Structures are given as structure tokens and as C-alpha cells.
Request: fold
Amino acid sequence: MELISTKPMNETATVLIVDDEKHTREGLRLSLEDDFDCYVASNAAEALENLKNDQIDVMLTDLRLGHDDGMKLLDEALKLPRPPVCIMMTAYGSVDTAVEAMRRGAYHFVTKPLNLDEVDLLIKRALRSRTLESENKVLRQQVERKFSIEGILGQSDVMKTVLETVQQVAPTRATVLIEGESGTGKELVAHAIHNLSGRPKQKMVTVHCAALSPQILESELFGHEKGSFTGAQERRIGRFELADGGTLFLDEIGEIDASTQVKLLRALGEQIIERVGGSKPIKVDVRVVAATNKDLAKLVEEGKFREDLYWRLRVVTVQMPPLRERKSDVPVLVDHFLKEMASLNGKTAKPLGEDVMPVLMNYEWPGNVRELRTVVEHGVVMCNSTRVMLKHLPSYLSRSGSGLRVPSMMISKPGGAPAQHSVGFDLNLEKMERQFIHEALERTKNNRTDAAELLGLSRRTLQRKLKEMDMVRKKRKSETGGK
Reply:
């Protein structure tokens, strides 16, 4: 193997010259070694060995390396943890191939016979580009550290407030209530609070309250003794005990029944629980974080939620804003999701087409960040070009300026305030509700759990509304004689 290194004592950029013609290699080395630390290799194997053993800043390689393929060398070089900037050398007749190399990640190409001044200038430009890229990466990391915590992204004023609250409350023992519409990231905030709390990472237990019947929920939370009810064939440890020393996250807390509310109040106040069917008090050390997409204060006024429990839960509140109120965060979120979805789906991360971001910024996002994530994943999966275009996104985005053809005022904020759209609509509330539920089911392919989340409802509430709609339909059919 031929290896020549002329690295000086100061930090000089390194250039690897790969060519199967010795005169070309030596000519380039002699021309460049005053400005760069030069390595040379005569084939792909030697080049790869240099790339793996030394930090190469720029690789200058011929497209034709005797029996080797310079394109394959390019691919291998770009897979390395710290890939070099790659410049391809080619004969005039192979310009199309060189352009293909650029599509695959090469910085640029030069044609033979070489103009040495042109090569020198191109290498220096490539190094400046690499320096700018490194500086931009550092800046991006600084921005992410400043405007994100544990995966929560946002640079809008409302999200800065959320991030500051999370940082302030996380190390304490305070109970936290997270309020916000479905899809705003409440569970992500709960995980961030736990992860920053100093409590063991594995000691976070989640309970989705709306998914369980009252009897099952009580057993899930507090456990039960053998024989305490039909089917209780053995003792069961509840989630409070499982979370001892850690965090218990109660999602959709507004759905719990009155009996469970009483037991939960005692658990929060005294850190003592009793299993269903048992009488022995069990001491636990559990930090409770709860979340709701309902207006708990209104439920208290209506007598559907205990006031004393309400105040126990809301020692500190975190209000998650809907995405329509933090539009400035859309580009940050899209950039993050483009990379995440590309990685998850085994695809190359690609930028958005110029026509896409205005549409995303204009859309009202009734499904919030969860909907945006789904839209971006759809675009990444369906993209078959160099950019993610509007045609690669779900079709409903391009059908109208705001996405849905029906009004989304049926999606409520915590507090009951409706989400506004500028679309025209029929003021018949019953008809609007039917339209919106139909649209949500259509968009989620009849997945009722996903549809409920999109609508900002619990699955149980959606089931009830569907049942009521069916009863109304049957009644009208009966009144009209089956017509």
C-alpha cells in the first residue's frame, strides 16, 4: 500500500487523493501539499483504510479506479461516522455520471485534464462549506437545548413558558395537572417532568383512565385482594404500588368515577392506599402527574368532579397550547419530524418543497402536534423525489386552505372555548357534530380511538355519541315509515 503523509505540526486540513494513475496522484500531491496534509491511495481498499484510520476532511477521487468503482467508494465514504467532503474527478465524457455522484452526496466534480488552480479553489470552498455546516450544527444544538426539553420542541412564547414551568417544577414533589386539547403533547410533558425529577427512569407508570371501567380502574390503581370480587383469583399489585419511589401519570383524569375520586384524594393527601377488598393501609412514595382535555373547573361546578380533589391535583398547572396558537413552532416541529420519520421508515431525510410550508402554516391543525406528526410521516413515506411536495401529503390538506371541509368548532379547548375556523358552516349543531364525527372517522379509517383523540373526546364519549346518532337515525326512519 502506498501512503504518503505530509502533515505539519499545526492543524492543517487533510486531503485524500485517490487515483489509479501514479502520475496523477503525485502531480496532485505536489500541487496541494503546501496548503494541505495530503494522503494518496491507488485503489478503493487503500482509500477506505485511510478513511477509517485517519480523519480525512476532503476526498478527491477518480470515478474510474481500474477494476474499482469510484461511485461505490463514494457511497462507503459517506456512510462513515465522520464522512469527508467528496470531490469527484472525471473525464469529459462522464459528466452525467459525475452529476449522479452529486445526487448521491458528492460535493462537486472536476473534469480531466485537471486545472490545478481550479482543484485548489474547489477544495478550499468545500472546506469552508464543511466549516459552515459544523457551525450550523452547533447552533442548531444550542437552539435545541434552549427551546427543547426531553423532546418537547418550541420557540414560541407560550412554549417557552411551558418549558420554564417544566424545568421549575420537575425536581420538586408537587402534583402537576397538565391541561390541553388532545394531541398537544401532554404525555410528553409528563415524561419530561419525570425524567427531570431525579426519580428512577424506569419508575414511571401510566394509567389511561378513560379506557377502563370504574371497577377495573379502581383495581388497576390500588390493586385488589384475592376473592375481593368475581374473577379476583389472586392478589394484584396496583399501579400506585408499582410506581412507589417514582411517578404515576394519570391520563384523562376527568373520566374517573366518584368512588375512585374519593380513594385518589386520600392517596394524594396521605400517600396511603388500600387494595380493593383489603383493610391494610399501604404507605407509598408516589409523585402524581395528571392530564386532561376537559375543563375540570366546569366539571366541579356541575358536581361531576370533587372540588377537594381538583385542588389537590392542580398544585401546579401546565397549560399546553393548541398548535393553531403556536404557529411559529410549525417549522421547528416539521424539521424534527422529517428527520425522525425518515429514520423510523428507513428513508433519507429530504427537505420540503417550496409550496408545502405555506399550506402547513395556514392550516388550523385540529389534531394538533399529533396530526402534524402524522402528516409529515405520510409525506416522508410517500415521497419519491428529492423533496417532500404537497402531493405527497394527505389529500385533505390541498382540498381547502384550512384542511377540513367541515367546521372544527366541535373541538373544544379546556374551558369549553371552541376552536375557530374561517370556513362557512351550517349553524345546526346536531348536523355539525355528525359531520365532524364522520370526517374524523373517515380520516382515521374508522379507528374510534384515534378518531376520539382527533376530536378531543374520550373514546367512551365518542361511543356514546355514535350510539345516540344511531338511535336518532332509527327514530326518524320509524317516523317516516322506513323511508
